[in-house]
Amino acid sequence: MADDFKYHIDHHGSLVRPPALLAARAAGLSGEALAATVEEAVEAAAHLQRRLVLSTVGDGQFRREHFESVAYDHVSGFAPVTGVTPLAELAGIPFARRRSVAAGPAGLVASGRLAQAETAPVLAVVDRPVFAALPSPGYLAAVGSALDGPAAVDAIRGAGAALAAILHAEIEALAAAGVAYVALGNPLYPVLLTVEGRERLLAVLPADVSADAVLAAMIEADRAAVTGLTVPENFRVGLDLTDSGPLPTTERGYHPAALDTLLDETPFHRLCADFPADPAARLPLERIKPGLVISLGVVDVASPELEDVDALLDRVDPVVEQRGDLDVAIATNAGFAASVDRPLLSEDAQYAKLRLVETVARYYWGNEI
C-alpha cells in the first residue's frame, strides 16, 4: 500500500525534555503539580511540531523515563537484567533500558492501556495526524535475553506471542481514539540483518543458537502485533529499526537473505531506517518491494552539525526517482532522547535538525506536506 495519505516527514517520537520539566522532576514535584507541568510541556511541543509541518505529531515521550517505559510501567512480568544480554549489547541498548521476562508468558499482563495518557492530550490540541511510538513485542521479548541456549529462543517466542496480543489490543485502541500512525520500534533487528552484526553475534552465541532462529522469533511476534488489525482505512503502522543515531553494525552492509526474511510478506506499511552517506552502509532498497514506504533517516541526530541540503538531496534523489514519491518519507536517523537523562542534542539543535528534515521534504512535496 503506497503512502497515499502523504505522511512524508517522520520523526521517531522522543524529544529532548524541556528545562522546566527536568527542573520539576529534579525538585521532586509529583501528583497534580507534576502532571500540570507535563501537560504544559506536551502542549508546547505539539504546537511546535505543528508549526514545523511534521506529518504526524506526538507528545515527545515526555511521560517516559525510557522509550520502553510505556510497556515496563504498564505490563507486569518484567524484571531487571542481571547477566549478559548479547543482542542488546551489540545493538547499543543501554543497560538501564533492558528488562528480562521473569515469569514466562503467563506473567505478562497489561494493567489497563499503555499509551492513552500520551496521545489523548495531543489529539485534543492539534489538528494534524497524531502518532505514537511503541516498543515492538519482539524487541521487548528479546532485549533482556541471555540467548544461552535453544530454550532462550523458545522463551522469546512465547513471550513475544503474549506481548503481541497486548500490543495488538493497544494499537486497535489507539486507532479507535483517532491516532493515525503507530511506529513499533525494534532496534535489535540491525544486528541480525547486517553482515557484521551477525558475525559478531555468532561469535558470542552458543553453537546451538542461530541468528536466524532469533530473527524468526522476533519477526513472528512483531507481525502478530499488526496482523488482522481492525482500524480505519487511513491508519498506518510502521516498523522502526533506529534507536540513537547511526546504526552500529552496517559498515559492511546488510545480509540479503536475512533482510528478505524480515520484509517478505510484511504487514507493515512503513519501514524507518538509517540512510547514511556511505552507500555501502545503506539499506539495499532494491530488495524492498514497491508499496512499502521507506522512511529515510538522512539527518543525523548524533551530531549538532547541520548537514548540507544539497548533499542530502543528492542522497535522496535516486531513491525518489526509482521508487516514486509515494513510497518515500524523510526523517532523522533516530529519536532525540530515548532516555530522559541521555539527550543526544540540545533543544535548539534538535529543532534545527527537524527543520532540516522539513526543508528536504519540501523540495519533493512542496505544499503537500
What does this structure look like?
Helix content is 42%, strand content 12%. The protein has 369 residues and is α/β, with parallel strands linked by helices. Strands 1-11-10-9-8-7-6 form a seven-stranded parallel sheet. α12 links the parallel β10 and β11. α7 packs parallel to α10. The protein is globular, with a radius of gyration of 19 Å. The model has no long low-confidence stretch (mean pLDDT 93).
Quick structural summary:
By secondary structure, this protein is an alpha/beta fold.
Entry keywords:
alpha/beta, 11 strands, globular, 13 helices, 369 residues
Major β-sheet annotation:
7 strands, parallel
Number of helices: 13
Percent strand: 5-15%
Strand segment count: 11
Helix content: 40-55%
Unreliable segments of 5+ consecutive residues: none
Structural class: alpha/beta
* Average residue pLDDT: 93
Oligomer: single chain
For the record, give the distance between the C-alpha atoms at the N and C termini, rounded to a whole number: 19 Å
Indicate the topology.
Elements (H helix, E strand, L loop, with lengths): L8 E2 L8 H8 L4 H21 L17 H4 L2 E2 L1 E3 L5 H6 L7 E3 L7 E2 L5 H10 L5 E5 L1 H6 L7 H28 L3 E5 L3 H5 L1 H8 L8 H16 L9 E5 L15 H8 L6 E5 L18 E7 L9 H15 L4 E5 L14 H19 L4
Parallel strand pairs: 1-11, 6-7, 7-8, 8-9, 9-10, 10-11
Antiparallel strand pairs: 2-5, 3-4
Helix pairs in contact: 1-2, 7-10
